[in-house]
Amino acid sequence: MLKSKRLIASLSGTLCDEFDRALDEGSDVKCEFMKEAIVCYEEMKNGYIEMAELNIEISEMCCAGELAALEEYETKLSECDDRDDNGSEKRRHILC
């Protein structure tokens, strides 16, 4: 059997009033309310972690597309032909 531990929390007056109002609207027992709040917090925390991972994937996909477009643009730009001074030969410009 799991051992229980006692948790003591100090709340500001405003937060304590909100806590009491929430108890009036829902759960009767402060202990049960706190358990539910902790479970809700953990679920939200996990949701934010999952969303952060998705945001990273999405931003990396967008960056990859932008990088590919930039590379294509630079390739086309580097291969453009321009006439030299005497108007007869073409030369290639290479971007560094």
Structural summary, described in words:
This protein is mainly alpha-helical and 96 residues long. The chain has a domain at 22-79. The chain contains two helices and two strands; from the N terminus they run ααββ. It has helices spanning 13-25, 30-78, and strands at residues 81-83, 90-92. A two-stranded antiparallel sheet has the order 1-2. The longest helix has 49 residues, at 30-78.
Task: List the keywords.
single chain, mainly alpha, 6% strand, 2 helices, two-stranded antiparallel ribbon
- Secondary-structure-based class equals mainly alpha
Low-confidence stretches: none
Number of strands: 2
What is the terminal-to-terminal distance? 69 Å
Would you list the SSEs in sequence order as H and E? HHEE
Radius of gyration: 31 Å
> If you average the pLDDT, what whole number results?
79
Largest sheet data: 2 strands, antiparallel
Total helical segments? 2
Query: Within the largest sheet, what's the order of strands?
Result: 1-2
Shape verdict: rod-shaped
What level of helicity do the residues show? 55-70%
| Share in β-strands | 5-15%
